[in-house]
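subagent[fold] <- orchestrator: predict structure for attached chain, return tokens only, no commentary.
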Amino acid sequence: MNLSIPQIVVAALVVTSQVLVVILMLRRGLRSAFPMFFTYLTVNVVSALLLLAAYVNGFPQYFYLYWTLSTIIMVVGFVVIYEVFVDILKPFSAVIDLGKMLFFWAALFLLLAAFLTAVVTNAPSPKRIVVAVDLCDRCVHLMQCGMMMLLVVLEKRLNFSWRSSGMAIALGLGVAAAADLAASYGQNRFPNVSGQLDLANSVAYAAVVTFWALRLMSSQSAPKTVASTPSRLILQRWNEALIGYGYGETATTSTVESFLPGIERTVDRVMARKAVS
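subagent[fold] -> orchestrator:
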């Protein structure tokens, strides 16, 4: 398949935009805050250049190179979801610990689903690998869409700030994942417009990367805390409940709400000992 001029232009725009975001992250010191997102962009740029060189030079192992790089991007993209999740929920250590456990089981589920898909697929080995990787990639995209929808729905209730870098990254990942899933569905349903859908998907991703660049160039607002909000967040109550079950960091200072019940329990124990004696 020959690349059209619009496809070449959009691909160049995507690579240039990703390089710009990488440079911005280095200059603003965001690489240490989002190392996996930095790796995600870098891997995308390197993959695009390698695949272009292999395509132009007629590399005989282009098929294996493409799916190997796609697998690496998928794995890094999955880790980026957890990285953004941790950044957004920084004040809630117990919720983060629970999320870590859930992400671990989600990763195991993806591996099991990929293995079973490869086993039951009646095709040569390369085709089995493609089907398994494609299934995992769609699952990761669905997780990215789900995280975006969760943040959009709960943004006001949980008092998140759209000006934060983590929220911007999550929003971009969700939009890009939704566009990719829509394009994949359209290509399977309407194969005669596959090229146009692929171009539209690339344009959507270029817009997302441009959004990341603009967002990272602007100042980031400080995350709001529970104490700065007039109403108590439900997420804080979840965090306190999870701390009671051993998740997260144990608070070194007690609040009034946790201090009074502690006094009551101490008095009860003392009275019980006196009654026994």
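orchestrator: received. Logging for downstream: The mean pLDDT is 77. Residues 125-154 form the longest helix (30 residues).
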